[in-house]
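Task: encode each sequence below as structure tokens.

Item 1
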Amino acid sequence: MLDLRPPGAGVLSPDGKRLYFSWRVTGVDQVWRLDGADRFPLQLTGGEDRTTIAAVSPDGRWLALERDRQGEENPGFYLQAADGGPLREVQHRPGVQTEFQHFSADSRFAYYVSNDVSRDSYAVYRYDIGAARAERLFDGQGFWRVADVQPGRLLLVKATGSRGREWSLFDEATRSATPLLGQGEYSDYVMRFGARPGHYVVVTSKSSGFLRVYEWAAGQSLTPVAVPGGERWDVEGLLLDRARKRLYLTINEAGYTRVQVLDATTLQPLPLPWPAGLDHQIVAAASADGEQVVLALAPPDRPRETAVWNWRDRTLTRWTVPSTPEADTRQFAPATLESYPARDGTPIPMFVRRPARCLAAAEPPCPVIVHFHGGPESQSKPGFSPIWQFFVEAGFVIVEPNVRGSSGYGKAWLDADNGAKRLQVITDIEDAALHLRSAWTRNGVAPRIGVYGGSYGGYAALMAMTRFAGAYDAGVSNVGIANLLSFIENTAPYRRQLRVTEYGDPATDREAMIQLSPTRWVHQLKAPLMIVQGANDPRVPVGEALQMHEVARARGVPLELLLFADEGHGASTRANQALQWGHVLRFFQQHLPGR
């Protein structure tokens, strides 16, 4: 199943004749090039370190690459000639994050950010490609990024929490930053330079409770933009081509991803010219002139494909074909959208994948694995999934809830679990098992239920096994948080403030954070537990797994620890993924045997 993988969507050369993308066909992400649709791909980077492409310079001469070592999440920024060849290291330092942001329109400069001055703040740099020289432009305190670029001006954003964003306009000549939106508000603004001078395209949930599109200029109010299909759902993504011709919006319709296109100047809707109806479709990149766009198209029964839409001749051309060796993906179990009731009556959406034999009424109920997603500001979505098909073929029903705190359902749903409020909705974890055990009982036999999750989902799995002990019959936590207080104290400095707004501040929410920590409830653990962790994880440090394993040993239940010395926040190499998923399947087969 690990060989059923698509290439990354990729970015086009300025003339639209080449596509550059990342692909894990070697076992780890490397950068590849296609010199035309359905041509044989050429590998541009190699080795054992994950390498991805961020952009192609507007003149088509340079690729901006990022490379990380052993999952440490301390990437370095490199340049490579568009034809291939050796990498030019711009900056890659131990323990430092260096991330490419944008090229200048004339391709003279590459902009990047780095926390090389202070580990909890990011300075903005400008790298002169011809002179091979970097200079620091801006070193304001905080988590800064460069969101957009115009000649002599940078659109800067500072993250003030898990969702709060403050936006500023930076003048390169004067080295001054002028505040624009979000200062002191803690609101979820997303901005880009608009097609009209002095105007910006803004996405925010501030006014409506859902992510909506607006036009804005300094000194004016936000002006709503009508988006077909955007009335009931979040606009979760936007792409404005460099030529400022068209604005592409990604609409999240209950987990299904759709695209809408607007004229960038008038902001009026344009008819969608390519086929709709897939589970997911995303505009990944555009050519320099805006006349060609890269589409990631994801049908439910096979891996994602990459196609290029040409506005001039109105053709859709497939460029990449996914790998599906030794598999008939048409037989894969589709994900169906269902729901379960929380104890206060709130319907919790969930996607369900079932083995065909589990649909037969005469058969005993199949064992169930409930998968809680990470984030928690994320969302489980339908679509093609080789990993979950792996478990479906082994006889498990896969259930993926979007509990309160998930994205995609509006601001109130997203913020329902912030800080101490999580005490009121953490029971969504237990309610999933209670509903499944009752509603899916067949002929007097209830299904056996396991729980799995990674990152925040790993935390949810640990809470399921401790705070809600007895609800689940076995659990696997992958890079999960065991103790919210030690997590906040030990997570990477750059993440600490961003996570405080989500999980709570030890200075003001200490008691709630203790009550919401799996270690507080480990004395109730009564079912088998597996803990998976990468030793190099900067987000959820390895100490979370070790302390959970240490306190859980006293319970005398079946307990396993799978520790990867060369991984970070989740297994990234093919060999380690094979070990991880093989052991997870073996664990659930052992402790959730089919009837």
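Item 2
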Amino acid sequence: MTDTTDPHLILIDGSGYIFRAFHALPPMTRPDGTPVNAVFGFAQILERFLSQNVSTHIAVIFDTARTTFRNDIYPEYKAHRPEPPEELVPQFALIREATEAFGVCRVELPGYEADDLIAAYAKAFEAQGGRVTIVSSDKDLMQLIRERVIMLDPIKQKPIREPEVLEKFGVAPNKVAEVQALAGDATDNVPGVPGIGVKTAATLLAEYGDLETLLARAGEIKQPKRRELLQTHAEMARISLRLVTLDENAPLPCPIEDLRAKAPEPARLGAFLAENNFRSLAARLGLGDGGAPQRARPVESTATPEPSAAAFGPYDCVTELGALERWVALARDAGVIALDTETDSLDALAARLVGVCLAVAPGRACYIPLRHAGADMLTETPPQIPFEDAMAALRPLLEDPGVLKVLHNAKYDLEVLAQPQNGGLAVTPVDDTMLISCALEAGAHGHGMDELSQLHLGHKPISFDEVTGTGKARISFAHVPLDRATAYAAEDADVTLRLWHHLRPRLRPERALALYEQVERRMINVLAGMEQAGVKVDGAELARIGQDFAERLVVLEAECHRLAGRAFNVGSPKQLGEILFDEMGLKGGKKGKTGAYSTDAAVLEDLAAQGAELPRVVLEWRQLAKLKSTYVEGLAAQIAPDGRVHTDYAMAVTSTGRLSSTEPNLQNIPIRTEEGMRIRRAFVAEPGHVLMSADYSQIELRLLAHLAEVPTLREAFAKGEDIHSRTAAEIFHLDPGSVDKEARRRAKTINFGIIYGMSAFGLGARLGIPAGEARGIIDAYFAQYPGIRAEMERLKEEARMNGYVLSPFGRRLWIQNIKAKDAMLRAGAERQAINAPFQGGAAEIIKRAMVRVPMALREAGLKSRMLLQVHDELVLEVPEAEVEAAGAILRRVMEGVAELRVPLLVEVGHGTSWAEAH
């Protein structure tokens, strides 16, 4: 047994383990139908912890009922917390059985929270001369930390002592409860003092010493608002302190002696595992089907390496069917595996599968070559399992709903495996480490696997270029020698699994779990379906548009030559700059490092605003030339044999969560120009169908009205008024009936400019007026709508304080350079902080709709399907007979996905082409 000269008590916060296990694993049931995924996950976590940590005493502490003595103090305490998921409820009792089966004492007491019991046991054990480790990441428990009482983060396996508490709260552990009493806690419905955050609370306590002294001397505080809040809410702060202070004198349901660590009874543990069908865990513990053990594991056994400590390789190259079958068995036992594919193309719909990678544990991965060839005509084909045989062995595993498959950028791999030439597999269920990272830290950094590996694991993976070469020397992955292919490919699966272990447990404590599970993860299959469906493009119409654009370009080019007084290459910035600034003598020319004048769009727009004709015509020529090359010639080249184009949606590129599309990029086609509408006419419906467009109306302005206290804006949206006309009337002091098109246009520019944090200079350029006049308009706008200015200042302060802002639905949107010393970088970050919640909120709303629309169409028995998502618009292909029903479903679902303080409005149209649908 362990050394009793150093008594050590480990107290495990059971609730943290339960919910971590429940949300980490897909649904599982035992033979009688009882759900057991949380039980299995809890048992795995507990077994792993016991094998890696040694102590003389140990207990798992559980909560009992939702109501405790704190509800007598404040009835609203935790009253808003949702009920646990229905499929988790029957697992609570089994989890308690699991604790006892592993030989660990379980502790609970009606009327008290687990945190109180942890506090009481820590005090009692410390009084006996022992030391205590509390296994939890719950910030409420940080008030207990002292010399002989520490916390251990169960996810990061890192100790939490006084320095970590100081970093989080700005005070020592013995002042944490007072900080929480002032700041409140929305999670537990602890009221606190409105307007007082953690940082301010720490500052006040440092100045006044303790909460009671602060409240008694609140009248001395110089800031009027803060003084008033503390005086008004003093009693609520005292109540809050009683709510957050843990009861160190709570009864001890089990005597300390009963908490002594001991090895589990093999028969009892084996029977429990057998009853719940946990065969893989029983096999790992040497308990077979619940009989006599083949090997017993004492509590104080040697610790196994942390996942991050396992070596990256060497990995197995699986070239025989028997070996593959053994790996499949290992994967089934693991329950959670990482999966990756190697292909001969980045086009998921056309790629041929070259190999598959599996990882069953950190450092334990394999590569299964499937279609490798020799390096050249003289090199023999390397040994590998015949493709059909290998896929037959893999199919049951990859389609097994009881084994969670973890991928990075899962959409690509799922589309590859779904293609008939690659086996036509329907892989399920899946987790995606790229999307988990994006849900946690959108905007903080990129979410590519290599970048995340270096960031979180401290490991630089082998790059694709290292194994395939670059440029003209690059070879197909099918020709990479198997040893190099294995080292590269299996490492990817290994890294993915390690990232999952590192990132997945953070979702719940960082409040990103709902976003990931309800939106981001569900979007994988939604987007994969849209990409595979594609949209029909009329090649003949594209050709006619291309011819027309070519003729217009010739005319515009001739006009440029006439205005310049000589022929020149309109597409040459160098020649254009010499004509504009040297020959024509226009003001504002600036040369770059190459010695050539800058002639970018901003320069030409400024010159055009000053009345120069040539820059205006060049701008028109450039736009038309770009449309011709990108959307006429580019689209024509991307029409697949099925007559459709299949865009690729990137899910983790933007900092706000918006989707972006590539090959072709359908999000940059001009919306309100005749040329843009011409291109949209080439997107057509199949015979007997129409294209239906459903577009959120002014969604970002509605989010602004939702977030900012602007009663008149909310009233206008509630009444369905023209918001731009209403704005024009109010800021220009016009009678509502006298607002003309120009006033409305200016108001519209201002409304949208404010959301993007536009400066007076920028607004002046948009409206064609001096910056001083634009500043006057902005001042008038904020005078009319002071709530908007207050919201903008709040967002900038939130970004400065936290490094991120929150979307209206709680997503963290990280803002780079918000504390930059460079004023221009900092100003740009502040504009981003202002705009991010609106773009991020709009992105989440339309994603929510995209998740729900296909389901609603199926439930209605309709064959309509989504094809495209462009900004705030969805485009569907709808049988003519379903137009009315599909339109009604779109409005109902899209307008009902979020409850804002103003109504969401969706405009629906349809036609034989995308242009007609608007």
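Check on item 2: Residues 313-534 form a domain with the Nucleotidyltransferase; domain 5 fold (CATH 3.30.420.10). The chain has a mean pLDDT of 88.
End of task.
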